[in-house]
Design brief:
This is Short transient receptor potential channel 4-associated protein isoform X1. By secondary structure, this protein is mainly alpha-helical.
């Protein structure tokens, strides 16, 4: 027998079968020949013409060929299924046939996700392929959708049990046979119809898993407002169903990624935004609005996110769900790991949980369980972790959407933050036990581990929650809020208005707030930890916006600056992502703060340490430029203050002395302009352009702008490339005008973070772009005529 096609790959996105594979399948059933049935069926499936279904053959013919080809009787079963599933059928015999087909496919699907499958490069799944090739998938879709057909004004009905069998067979076929999921995704009416099957608890898990797989490969995002009775459907979900439904929502509310790095450039994003303005809200935005219109939706998500393990579903219902996972194969690896943990704990604790074979159950539909023991605690915890992952992701996406302020108000009102604070030690940042759950092929430090993923999702939520929003003070408890007030009072500065306006009934309780807990684990994190990046981003988001001396001092008193410097200098961190997040955080922590610069000088107390620090800064300006900007801004402010404390810092601080030198500033300026171009600008590196502008704006304040431009011209000539830098800068500034003059949020961020009015930003750019070659502050005055190249069209159509 010729080789069957290789396994399609788990989950969504199966699309690799080539014509050679079809030819291999054509060898099934004897010697290859032009009229081979399987080849004709495959061609019919692709073209929609010719042989496409088992019903086009006689049973005698199929039986004879089955003896040679070993099709496991699947074509004959499909022939009977077609005959017993007509509109006037009672579907009893139809369901019996489905139960004959189901084990033939489920055994292959289960094999697909086992450890043994991973040990072989090529694995064959003939049953699911034959089932699809003889029209089984299309027939099951028709059977499932029979309730949408009315006869004499009455809609047809099929049992939940039959729907469940159809869904399981469809999913097993999707798992093992390439292309099936994509074909189902193209049937938009079927995808929308599937949502209606989630009204029944008996079919919920199978339906949800199939929908998730289909949406993962669907080219166009579905619109939730097209789902019949969406509000009623979601409102009737129990908490367990709602948590699982979040897996589907994760696909429907996130903007679709093009998968092309070029599309992440600011040029492309601007073009896409212009296009979107003419098209109206995206499908993801429409879906977010549809969910937020459902009464109590966000409140229920907050309850799920903050639910304690002891409050979660009991043993019996969880074991029922575990049994469902035999067919819910997307989670088979998780189930396998859970069972392994249970077995390990059973050996140590003499606890016994009897997991039945697939399909085995008591009369009440529950698996056999021992009444003597409880479910192992590790399985309860993992059950809750898997739910919270999905819920936190949905909340995070909603926090970043168009209705951000509405979502902020709701999650504050429903006490999400204090609830997460109460779970921090026992669940979110719990210590790993010896038998902590990890998936096959991974370890406890792998980003794919549920424990790790929960922590990262939690940190992303904190980042989104704190970023430029006054609700960030809910991360503190009452005592810590009082500490902020005391810091302002001692410094004789006005108390932050947002602190005064914070509703004390919604803040964290306990001895420590969530921000303080985060700082504690951050300082204990191993050097190689993947969490360092996300932790720094979450803390930095608390400092973003208008600089707050009290906020900075609150963090400085807890040793944050020393921790950051240890990581940058003493541990000599090598990760670019971590370094960038630490430099950004350090910049926000030190900006305009004399005490922070004193602490910096105290820690970096030798030339050797300072040289290591400079080496880290200079190794990648894309990563460190925000720190360079903050130090430059701070230096400018300090130089204009008359204060003994400030004067002392200016005279002693190595970093301020280094940045104050014109050659240093010119070196930074030259490199910042040189490493970016309009076509390669992204949200990540556009900061280099803004940092270069800050240096020139401060030079303009001191009436030194012509000097800096003249020095840039000399540096160009010294590199033997006259005009290349200033032409590039001219183009960058033209883009800057297009980008920022139409984006309110970005311009506000620039103003708040620099304490320079946006009008001064605009004026400086206009002065630099002045076409008058006689102007001493215009870029064109320093580009010699033969090298002029300033009118290049950089827009994307």
């Amino acid at each position: 027998m010729a080789a069957a096609p290789a396994a399609a790959g788990s989950g969504a996105g199966r699309g690799r079968r080539a014509a050679a594979t079809v030819a291999a399948w054509g060898g099934w059933g004897g010697r290859p020949r032009p009229g081979n049935i399987l080849l004709q069926l495959r061609q019919g499936q692709l073209t929609g013409r010719g042989l496409v279904r088992a019903v086009q053959f006689t049973e005698t013919f199929l039986t004879e060929r089955d003896k040679q080809s070993k099709w496991s009787g699947i074509p004959q079963l499909l022939l009977k299924l077609y005959a017993t599933s007509h509109l006037h059928s009672d579907f009893v015999e139809c369901q019996n046939i489905l139960k004959e087909i189901s084990p033939l496919l489920s055994m292959e699907a289960m094999a697909f996700v086992t450890e043994e499958r991973k040990l072989t490069q090529e694995t064959t799944y003939p049953n699911t392929y034959i089932f699809d090739l003889f029209g089984g998938v299309d027939l099951l879709v028709e059977i499932l959708m029979r309730p949408t057909i009315s006869i004499r004004g009455q809609k047809l009905k099929i049992s939940d049990e039959m729907s469940k069998d159809c869904l399981s067979i469809l999913y097993n076929t999707c798992v093992c046979t390439e292309g099936v999921t994509k074909r189902l995704a193209e049937k938009n009416d079927f995808v929308i119809f599937l949502f209606t099957l989630m009204t029944s608890k008996k079919t919920f898990l199978q339906t949800a898993t199939l929908i998730e797989d289909i949406l993962g490969v669907k080219k166009e995002m579905i619109r939730l407002d097209e789902v019949p009775n969406l509000s009623s459907l979601v409102s009737n979900f129990d908490q367990q169903q709602l948590a699982n439904f979040c897996r589907i929502l994760a696909v429907t509310i996130s903007e679709m990624d093009t998968g092309n790095d070029d599309k992440h450039t600011l040029l492309a994003k601007n073009a896409q935004q212009k296009k979107s303005l003419s098209l109206g809200p995206s499908a993801a935005e429409i879906n977010q609005a549809a969910l937020l219109s459902i009464p109590g939706f966000v409140e229920r998500l907050c309850k799920l996110a903050t639910r304690k393990v002891s409050e979660s579903t009991g043993t019996a219902s969880f074991l029922q769900e575990l049994e469902e996972w035999y067919t819910w194969l997307d989670n088979a690896l998780v189930l396998d790991a859970l069972m392994r943990v249970a077995n390990e704990e059973s050996e140590h604790n003499q606890a016994s949980i009897v997991f039945p074979p697939p399909g085995a159950s008591e009369e009440n539909g529950l698996p056999h369980t021992s009444t003597r023991t409880q479910l192992p605690q590790s399985m309860k915890i993992m059950h809750e972790i898997m739910y919270k992952l999905e819920v936190l992701y949905v909340l995070c996406v909603l926090l970043m959407g168009r209705q951000r302020n509405q979502v902020h108000r709701m999650i504050a009102e429903f006490k999400l933050i204090p609830g997460l604070n109460n779970l921090f030690d026992k669940l979110i940042w719990r210590k790993h036990s010896a038998s902590a759950l990890v998936l096959h092929g991974h370890n406890q430090n792998c980003d794919c581990s549920p424990d790790i993923t929960l922590k990262i999702q939690f940190l992303r939520l904190l980042q989104s929650f704190s970023d430029h929003h006054e609700n960030k003070y809910l991360l503190l408890n009452n005592q810590e809020l009082n500490e902020l007030s005391a810091i302002s009072l001692k410094a004789n500065i006005p108390e932050v208005e947002a602190v005064l306006n914070t509703d004390r009934s919604l803040v964290c309780d306990g001895k420590r707030g969530l921000l303080t807990r985060l700082l504690q684990v951050m300082k204990k994190e191993p050097a190689e930890s993947s969490f360092r990046f996300w932790q720094a981003r979450a803390v930095e988001s608390f400092l973003r916006g208008t600089t707050s001396y009290a906020d900075q001092m609150f963090l400085l008193k807890r040793g944050l600056l020393e921790h950051i410097l240890y990581c940058i200098v003493d541990s000599e961190c090598k990760s670019r992502d971590v370094l960038q997040s630490y430099f950004d955080l350090l910049g926000e922590l030190m900006k305009f703060n004399v005490d922070a610069f004193k602490r910096f000088n105290k820690y970096i107390n030798t030339d050797a340490k300072f040289q290591v620090f400079l080496k880290q800064i200079n190794s990648s300006l894309v990563d460190s430029n925000m720190l360079v900007r903050c130090v430059t801004l701070s230096l400018d402010r300090f130089e204009n203050q008359v204060d003994m404390k400030v004067a002392e810092v200016l005279s002693e601080c190595r970093l301020l002395a280094y940045i104050s030198q014109v050659p240093t500033q010119m070196s930074f300026l030259f490199r910042l302009i040189n490493i970016i171009h309009v076509q390669t600008l992204t949200q990540e590196n556009v900061s280099c352009l803004n940092t270069s502008l800050v240096i020139l704006m401060l030079a303009r304040r001191k009436e030194r702008l012509p000097l800096y431009l003249r020095l840039l011209q000399r540096m160009e000539h010294s590199k033997k490339y006259p005009g290349f830098l200033l032409n590039n800068f001219h183009n960058l500034l033209r883009f800057w005008q297009q980008h920022y003059l139409h984006k309110d949020k970005d311009s506000t961020c620039l103003e708040n973070s620099s304490c320079i009015s946006f009008s001064y930003w605009k004026e400086t750019v206009s002065i630099l772009l002045n076409p008058d070659r006689q102007s001493p502050s215009a870029l064109v005055s320093y580009i010699e005529e033969p090298y002029m190249d300033i009118d290049r069209d950089f827009t994307e159509e």
